[in-house]
Amino acid sequence: KASQCKQHIDRQNGLELLALVNQFAEAFWTTKGLKTYTAQCPYPPAQAVVYPVLDNA
Length: 57
Hints:
Structural class: alpha+beta
Distance between the termini: 38 Å
Largest sheet: 2 strands, antiparallel
Strand order of the largest sheet: 1-2
Low-confidence stretches: none
Radius of gyration: 13 Å
């Protein structure tokens, strides 16, 4: 999917790549024992992104 994004300017390819990256991020943080949450990215194009829950307690 990343190769398609590099070869063509197509928003749908970018959104599909982001979905795959979010799946990877969720699996990665789960293996580290951390929960995740999804939030809107603070910069354009403001898509949903997976973040780890980092407790400083």
